[in-house]
């Protein structure tokens, strides 16, 4: 019975070569159909020759589907984005037909190609920047990302390329004009257009663009002078030539042919008086002149070329009419010195003023004046005036004067003339630089980085130019044996202060330098300011353990009696920190211990006390690791190890300590000398204390002792002493180092005994002891 099933074999075929060869493996037909290899030959597995069968084959030995011949996707698929190649597989006994599909994927095996390797564009030099010209696009037979992905153009300051994606997903390129064209400077451009695809590896194609610039009439006629000046006597006759104007046009042909005329801006009345030759540009008098109506004439002359469109050039012609009978005074300056120093004394000559009136008689007599509220005055001479200074000048107050000079004649009506004289006051070095503050305070953290600025002083000088150029320096002084220049340097140009070495707060906390500001005048002026450098502490010193001593290195040995009660003071750890403030504020904590329940350490005092009673079951050897840290940021710390041994008799501790002292492994010669001295001193002190106690017991007086450490009763031995006394007032016992004040009630007697602390110290410690009633 025939059967037909669908066999979907969707294989993504990709290869580095442009064609797929017969060696490419596509799929396993036997595995997909669920057949073993022996059934392939028995059931005569074969591919239908139509459609995909012509491109593929199946091996009856292993059931593998492979490529029969090379596949060119562009040839069989065209521009289809997705192309499925169908094929059929048949089996006999029983007959089965299976359909399969093979998807052929594109590889980047085609480069973008332009239809023409070059194409031409023509542009007028009159077009404005921003105009776009559509360029011919390249074609790529590949699809998807393997088709044309972008365009580039060779570098040009006049053109750029703009690309955009059209609605049908095609990249188009437009040539954009970035800069105005000038055919007289460059008449053509050669550009290279490159199209690239998005495949890997990327492929590209190029085309030449030839741009020809078309000439236009873009150069106007230019006159030789912007303003032409001429004059005529009032009695000149019509036809008299006034002057000739001339213009040139850089264009050629008809674009360079020029016609002269008066522009519309020239008043009709003036055009009735003057005429101009349209070909030669000569201006002649046509009418009559009347000085009383107008003494000058201004004509706007234009030159128009014959280009399309025509371009016009303009010039101005000024014609002065000379009147022999009526002229206003004229002011002229000679020997002008436009600068005068501010330290010039009163009476310094500035300029010579000549006032001329071409008229005669009373109309030619002229007077001249300047304002009175300025530090200048005029000295009258026979035919001229001298402008001199009348007061002291200060450039910092006023640096320039605009002095109006007025001259008028004696005619009726009187005619006058005004002129402005510019007088600049030049600077002299009469101001010393001034600091913004008399003294500065600089705060610098210790361990600073050298050559990193810490401050900048500023000084200003109201003078000008080199008189205001301020340079900075350090005045010579010393800090100890070293000059201040070995600690600090200053930038002479901007006043930036730099340290030359790291500062150490523990060695140097503050110092003062003198900074001098000096200008560049001649002679130079200077001033100075004090700069106080204050070093700020940094937490750069770790705590140092000073007590108890550790002869063996970093560990100390201590002894305590067996069966001491809770709160017994074993020892006190003392440490110092070279820093200051919070950086030297120390705290203690137990970092590690053999038995964490047996001892505790005071956070602030460093006292190591028993946290509970020492039991028989507790180990006789205890090791404590004490951490001492400061309160700096970041915090620094140190550790110290104490080995504590519980002994039955306190004398064992003393003997062991003596042996420890005698052992040269732990004690140096210097330490040995110190121990001997302290031992002798302690023995003498104990003898004195014992003598005083005996005297006080005999006299039945109150015994008040100040203890460095609180003591506890030691019940072993015969060191008990009973002191009797009469009634007394309440006493206060002060315990140094604990900050505690204890009020003692009125007592008739004390029972004291030697404290175990006496065996741990060079001092004799007494403690109250429980005494039987019969003994009391």
Instruction: Please give the radius of gyration in angstroms.
Output: 57 Å
Average pLDDT number:
77
Number of helices: 6
CATH superfamily of the largest domain: Cadherins
CATH architecture designation of the largest domain = Sandwich
Commentary on this structure:
By secondary structure, this protein is mainly beta. It has seven domains: 101 residues, Cadherins (Immunoglobulin-like, Sandwich), CATH 2.60.40.60; 97 residues, Cadherins (Immunoglobulin-like, Sandwich); 101 residues, Cadherins (Immunoglobulin-like, Sandwich), CATH 2.60.40.60; 97 residues, Immunoglobulin-like (Sandwich), CATH 2.60.40; 103 residues, Cadherins (Immunoglobulin-like); 124 residues, Cadherins (Immunoglobulin-like, Sandwich), CATH 2.60.40; 95 residues, no CATH class. The chain is 9% helix and 40% strand. The protein is built from six helices and 56 strands. A four-stranded mixed sheet has the order 1-7-6-3, with no helix packed on it. The chain has a four-stranded mixed sheet with strand order 8-14-13-10, with no helix packed on it. It has a four-stranded mixed sheet with strand order 16-23-22-19, with no helix packed on it. The radius of gyration is 57 Å and the shape is flat. The N terminus and C terminus are likely disordered.
